[in-house]
Amino acid sequence: MTAYSDLSAHFGRIAALSNAIGILQWDNDVMMPKGAAETRAESMALLRVMRHGLSTDARIGDWLGEADNDGSLGAWDKANLREIRRVWTVDTALPSELVEASSKAISTCEMRWRQARADADFAGLLPYLAEVLNLQRQIGRAKGEKLGLSAYDALLNDYEPDGRSAKIDALFDDLAAFLPGFTQEAMAVQARRPALAALGGPFATETQRALGLKFMTALGYDFERGRLDISTHPFCGGADNDVRITTRYDEADFTKALMGVLHETGHALYEQGRPQSYLNQPVGAARGMSLHESQSLLMEMQACRSRQFLTYAAPLMRESFGGAGPAWETEAMWHRYTRVEPGFIRVDADEVTYPAHVILRYRLEKALIADEMPLAELPAAWNAGMKSLLDVTVPNDRLGCLQDIHWPSGGWGYFPTYTLGAMTAAQIFDAACKAESAILPGIGKGDFSPLVGWLRANIHGKGSLLSTDDLLTEATGRPLDASVFKAHLRRRYIDEV
User: Fold this and answer.
1) Which of 146, 177, 296, 476 is deepest in the core (most CB within 10 A)?
2) Is the domain of 126 the same as that of 266?
3) Is residue 154 domain-resident?
4) 3-state DSSP assignment of residue 150
């Protein structure tokens, strides 16, 4: 045995434990009866403490020191050492007591959030969310001291390795300056179109599900290694080679759930495409959440709101629901799926207004982590931000600050990756289509294999071999900037291409 093989075996055990946690978390969010919440919280806390104990094992530092001098390691193993060191450095910043306390607080808060969201009751959630926030501040400070970062950047680093708020501030300030005027311009173009006719309904949940499954198959989802279910908040989760996605259905409007399925399928394709030989090692993990969100938004926004996709999809929608008339024609369906309309709900937002939802959350969570505003003021600050950024008046907290699970579940630092992901998606899809001429014609026929094949080779199969910037530069020829995203918006919403 070498030090590197010891490390590999050790992190394989950590991956196995993470897989168990992933399936229990999926069950918690999808199937678990409410009465099991307290027991489940204890189980999850114990498993997370056990995982933390393994990832902070004193032997890891010694193994890393020895492995650094191993001249026999190839590029993947060297990258794995780098990623192991990164994980170990972050995890050793936290005492196990803090990990346990945070896990229990999150489990309790998540369950309370479900009821609070249904009742639009922020006051009822406040003490539970305050405890989660307090512990996240402690976690951020502890990691920040170890990494030489602010508390917020330390939390961001968990989701976006090497991500920094200063860079995000510049990108988001640029978008915040560009989007309001562009939104008005896009809506003016849209106003010249004929009014959208109603699709009718109701649309049976089972029919929606069947159509979603059909599109998942077209995109290349492997049902031998996953499943589709229903949850309060759509997500992609599970375990290695057991990649599960969820959506939520509205029988008055099938279009939202369908795009939710396509979004989560993008995440799942990334997970199912990770390198099998390093699946249980840090180097085999997805390279941060901006890249992960780029894969979901690439599918949902770039590919599946294109004219090509809707040429293929509109007849299937019409056939599934027995639709008839102009509202079901391809052009009308494209207009429906590219409609710009400021609204309350992030997950239902169009791609023009979506970044505003993210910018708001990013600014608020930064302020809350820095203790620059009391948590009790969150609803008012949220509503003011929605008015300022999107000119909408939020009627209640269910449609406002209670709509997302991220903060109750401890996901502080996650939100900016959505808009970073949207910009990344535009850049990757543009590069893919230029490199592979069969992609757009394939999408028009429901054949996603040229696109997925390119993504497998250039994104999914690379795992965490490269840094985010290097991976993106290698795949697209440039590091991330907003120019391709802006050009895409202009083509679709102004030029109507």
Assistant:
1) 296
2) no
3) no
4) coil
468/327 same-domain check: yes
Does 228 lie in the same domain as 327?
yes
66 classed as catalytic: no
Tell me: do 485 and 370 sit in the same domain: yes
196 DSSP 8-state letter: P
Q: What is the SS3 assignment for 239?
A: strand
Residue 65 domain flag:
yes
The active-site residue out of 264, 293, 300, 365 is 264
Question: Could you list the mean pLDDT of each consecutive 10-residue stretch along the chain, which spans 497 residues?
Answer: 96 98 96 94 95 96 96 97 96 95 96 96 98 98 97 97 94 91 95 91 97 98 98 93 97 94 97 98 97 97 97 98 95 95 92 96 98 98 95 97 96 96 97 98 98 98 97 96 95 94
* Domain encompassing residue 336: 166-493
What span, in angstroms and rounded, lies between the C-alpha atoms of 175 and 159? 21
Q: Which two tokens stand for residue 229?
A: 């279910």
Which residues lie closer than 8 Å to 463 by C-beta, 6 or more apart? 274, 275, 278, 283, 284, 285, 286, 287
Which residue, of 90, 124, 149, is where some domain finishes? 149
Helix ranges restricted to H, 92-164: 96-119, 122-147, 151-159
Category of 234 on φ-ψ map: left (φ > 0), alpha (ψ -120 to 50) or beta: beta
Q: Scanning the structure block, which residue is given the tokens 């429906």? A: 336
Considering only CA atoms, which of 413, 343, 354 is closest in space to residue 137?
A: 413
Stated pTM of the model? 0.94
